[in-house]
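Re: your question from the hallway

Yes, I did run it. Sequences:
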Amino acid sequence: MIASEIEIDIRFSETDAMGVVWHGNYLKFFEDGREAFGKTFGLEYLKIFDHGYFTPIVKSEIDHKAPVYYGQAIKVITRYVPTKSAKIQFEYEVVNQTTGEVCAIGKTMQVFLDKETRTLELITPDFYREWKKRNQV
Amino acid sequence: MIASEIEIDIRFSETDAMGVVWHGNYLKFFEDGREAFGKTFGLEYLKIFDHGYFTPIVKSEIDHKAPVYYGQAIKVITRYVPTKSAKIQFEYEVVNQTTGEVCAIGKTMQVFLDKETRTLELITPDFYREWKKRNQV
Amino acid sequence: MIASEIEIDIRFSETDAMGVVWHGNYLKFFEDGREAFGKTFGLEYLKIFDHGYFTPIVKSEIDHKAPVYYGQAIKVITRYVPTKSAKIQFEYEVVNQTTGEVCAIGKTMQVFLDKETRTLELITPDFYREWKKRNQV
Amino acid sequence: MIASEIEIDIRFSETDAMGVVWHGNYLKFFEDGREAFGKTFGLEYLKIFDHGYFTPIVKSEIDHKAPVYYGQAIKVITRYVPTKSAKIQFEYEVVNQTTGEVCAIGKTMQVFLDKETRTLELITPDFYREWKKRNQV
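Structure:
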């Protein structure tokens, strides 16, 4: 299993009137997690784009376990979830660095769209197949 | 089954560099859907607050079916999902009004937190039990 | 002077941990104001785009006069500010509909970029000159 | 003059359908700049809060000089602007690290609100007067 980690300071603008991070912002933290994963393992968004694909999110899930307050920092652990289909799947664990608690877990699924035609690619693209082989996933 | 509908014009700021609505913004559309539902059926956030509770989202899911572009409008259908536990559950259907397509579906689950102690309320609050009875859900 | 008005309900996600609308969100309200103005006076973003131009914001200002809380609605008044140069300028007044107070005022300036070359258009585009004549501004 | 610097990677969600960072997101970059300044010079938001004050933004300005694209990083330089009144003022310079260009400049002004009464503090708070003296501003 391959995974990456990134630490994020909470922005004041990410809180809401309950005084905690607004639930929808976790999708931004997951995005930060994917970016960090991409940099570490050579699967950056722009590299995929250069291979001819957009990789939009088609499914996402968040389970909130505990609130996060302004002034706290979080760590996002992003784990690659192997799949035989032409998809990119991740699981996320968000840890409140101040309390040590897991504050959220989540999942995303991405597909490959041809960047010119915007049609769905049903076959695993060659570059991705090679990337999987290199990373043994 | 009780449900409400609301139409939303896409903000330019809600699009991303793929030219479509950024996936995370659907949680804002679901929020707009809940607001509309609350207004229609008397379950507004501030009314719940007056009864002594916060109702944070503890779980959310989005399935994207088709992209939405700037210049298009969407309709969010918000359906109440009955449950015996002390929770508020909704299902959402987002329809692209320009194309007629369902562009996303989703779910959210909310719990009741005592607004003073921020502890989880495990028993269905009285006002909510009465609301459910009145609405036969 | 030509102007338009639009009413907006505050989204919970637009509040911050001070319990009020986060200051940066007023730029979204100004955007809503411009959209409403565009619809009313035939100067929609996509119409301008069809004439060959992007019109990015190059300058914006916000003066906050009073806070806005969740549960309140605002009205954005968008006034066109005439200019001889190849620019689109607006002034905004945001009124808290619940209290009657002016809660913010602001300004934006947009320029014309050729949508293919992304170079700045220094001469007022024909379609815009005609639009100004028609609207006597 | 005292100033701080922070580098920020652009989030995909911060771009818009023009393919560049949406103009309103610069207020988030300014916020990141203030946070970095606060950490460096001991003027953190939560420290101010502990002294009894909220410090909301009452005025902000952004001048955009050049676009920033996804995949690029920016540097925000935050300069403290001395004032005799009970205010906190900053100037910002956003540099595109990929091109070396200044892509935006801006300003913000904050006031002191008593955190209990939410009334405006017209006299410079003691802790802030001492902070200014220590930092010779």
